[in-house]
Amino acid sequence: MQNVHYNLMNRWAAALRSGDYVQTEGALYDTETDGYCCLGVLSDMCQMPWRVNEDAGVVMYSYPTSPDGDWMEDSELPSKYWFADMLGLSEEIADVWMGDLAARNDKGQSFDRIALEIERKAGEWSGRTSKPTYPRTVAAYTYPRTV
Asked: Do 33 and 113 form a contact (C-beta atoms < 8 A)?
């Protein structure tokens, strides 16, 4: 059993279903359509720093890559360290699951279906089946995360 951040995972699932995010494929965030992939929604919720790479025509994010304060600049995907740290997963599980979620998104699976998978994993990995409780603001999930 993982020591997952159950409430964040369920808040992420709720954000995917909220209608506040337009779904896109192949990018965390698409400036032309104002669309997000499922991992981009989590990055947006956590207020990760980003910039538009004019040459590539895509949004590039910055993510921490280790507890030592190292950062990966100009990335089109989250670092497995950041994803693992935010969700309370091992880096090995985070790496595989992040790839699975990106593939689901880019193959056209709806945000609602992806949200179901996130909720299922949150319950499975935490051993919880009760309804999640949410903080009043998303600010509780900004990076660097304070617990």
From this structure: no
| pTM: predicted TM-score of the whole model, two decimal places | 0.78
**Is position 133 within any domain?**
no
The tens digit of pLDDT for each residue in 30-51 reads 888 889 999 999 989 988 777 7
Instruction: Give which of 16, 46, 36 is closest to 117, Cα–Cα.
Output: 16
Q: Identify the domain containing residue 102 by its residue range.
A: 6-126
Radius of gyration of the chain (CA): 14
Residues 6 or more apart whose CB falls under 8 angstroms from that of 133 comprise 7
Phi and psi of 53, rounded to 5°? -90, 100
How many domains does the chain divide into?
Answer: 1
CA quadruple 114, 115, 119, 124: dihedral, nearest 10: 0
* 132 domain residue, yes or no: no
